[in-house]
Write a structure and sequence with these properties.
GO terms for molecular function: serine-type endopeptidase activity. Pfam families: Trypsin. This is MGC68910 protein. Keywords: Disulfide bond, Hydrolase, Protease, Serine protease, Signal. Residues 44-286 form the Peptidase S1 domain. By secondary structure, this protein is of the alpha+beta class. It has one domain: Thrombin, subunit H (Beta Barrel). Helices cover 15% and strands 27% of the residues. It has helices at 25-33, 197-208, 278-284, 307-310, 312-319, 347-362, and strands at 48-49, 58-63, 66-75, 78-81, 94-98, 112-121, 135-139, 159-160, 166-171, 188-195, 221-225, 241-246, 249-258, 269-273, 287-292, 295-300, 322-323. The strands form four sheets. The chain has a six-stranded antiparallel beta barrel. The chain has a six-stranded antiparallel β-barrel with strand order 2-3-4-7-6-5. Strand 2 and strand 3 form a beta hairpin.
Length: 363
């Protein structure tokens, strides 16, 4: 269990070209009504550079001018990320960059930045590796959707994808432990396989050599990766999305949360289960303002966040998903900015955190 994490992608990287694009009237209407549908088609390969506009919900979160985490756009004023990304309650020290393709080229027509109005940390979060590793960022201004800035869809709360399904993780993190992504810092992507709870728990027990009283993988977590390792998220990718494609729509199932090292055998990446916190998310994001042609109109979140519910029957039939009626509903939250951020914990810190976590559950 172990809090190391600030995961980042272990990927190869290559260079590409960038160019500006604008929205036609029909494209703007499309952008305002559909989540999880990039206007740019993707390459079906893993561990490489992404294409410009391939993952339009991906954002970069900076702290004091330095990129520290990823995240995802889920509404035009809201970002979904990990709680452990925040090391300060001072919102003025954070900035969100959207439409980013290369971190070294933030000054371009497709990228916009927003200051942070509010950070909402889930109250269950205690430390890296604990449950409740989820946070919402409310930006100071809404963004206008473009081919490079679009929200991800959130899946139906009760729809579970089976183990073995291939999903994607994205980010600008280290390409291997201790080796940062080199310039021009192109957004990386990799495919990972969903792993069932028993298999993942068993892998961690084998790797760490003991079976804890409290499971390594808690109810609000799931694993993705490979038993042999090699493809994973790594330091710096924390808070970024894990998305799965169903019916040509991308659904965000996970948030990069924690792991041990990067790409190690029997130590797959661990992700916060977005569906587990569906009610908590919607407690805050009940409506959004969407700017269109210099005007704004109120749009009920069901048109954006609950597209998933409108398509749930087709979604379930297509993927043979099993259902679970428990879907956690969490009511209390606190708006504060504490938490660990993007640091590899020492073995001592991990041990103390593990001890604290186990004792807190026993008490």
């Amino acid at each position: 269990m172990l809090g190391f994490l600030s995961l980042m992608l272990i990927l190869l990287h290559e260079t590409g070209s960038a160019g500006a694009a604008s929205l036609s009237s029909s494209e703007e209407t499309y952008a305002l009504s559909v989540c999880g549908a990039p206007m740019v088609s993707e390459r079906i390969v893993g561990g490489t550079d992404s294409k410009k506009g391939e993952w339009p919900w991906q954002i970069s979160l900076s702290y004091k001018g330095e990129p520290v985490c990823g995240g995802s756009l889920i509404a035009n004023s809201w970002i979904l990320t990990a709680a452990h990304c925040f090391d300060s309650q001072n919102v003025s020290q954070y900035k969100v960059y959207l439409g980013v393709y290369r971190l070294s080229l933030l000054q371009n027509p497709n990228t916009v930045s927003r200051s942070v109005k509010r950070i909402i940390i889930h109250p269950d979060y205690q430390f890296e590796g604990s449950n409740g590793d989820i946070a919402l960022i409310e930006m100071d201004q809404p963004v206008t959707f473009t081919p490079y800035i679009l929200p991800a869809c959130l899946p139906p709360p009760a729809a579970l994808l089976p183990a073995g399904v291939k999903c994607w993780v994205t980010g600008w993190g280290d390409i291997k432990e201790g080796q940062p992504l080199g310039n021009p810092k192109t957004l990386q992507k990799a495919t990972v396989s969903l792993i069932d709870w028993h298999s993942c728990e068993s892998m961690y027990e084998t790797s760490l050599g003991y079976k804890p009283n409290v499971p390594f993988i808690l109810d609000d977590m799931f694993c993705a990766g490979y038993k042999e390792g090699k493809v994973d998220a790594c330091q710096g990718d924390s808070g970024g999305p894990l998305v799965c494609r169903v019916n040509n729509t991308w659904w965000q199932y996970g948030i990069v949360s924690w792991g041990i090292g990067c790409g190690q055998a029997n130590q797959p990446g661990v992700y916060t289960k977005v569906q587990y916190y569906d009610a908590w998310i919607k407690q805050y994001i009940t409506s959004v303002q969407i700017n269109k042609s210099a005007s704004s109109s109120a749009v009920d979140m069901t048109k954006l966040l609950e597209q998933s519910m409108n398509r749930s029957v087709e979604f379930l039939e297509t993927t043979n998903i099993t259902t679970n009626s428990s879907g956690a509903s969490l009511e209390l939250v606190k708006a504060l900015g504490g938490g660990a951020h993007n640091q590899a914990w020492s073995h001592l810190t991990i041990s103390l955190s593990l001890m604290y976590f186990c004792l807190s559950h026993l008490w």
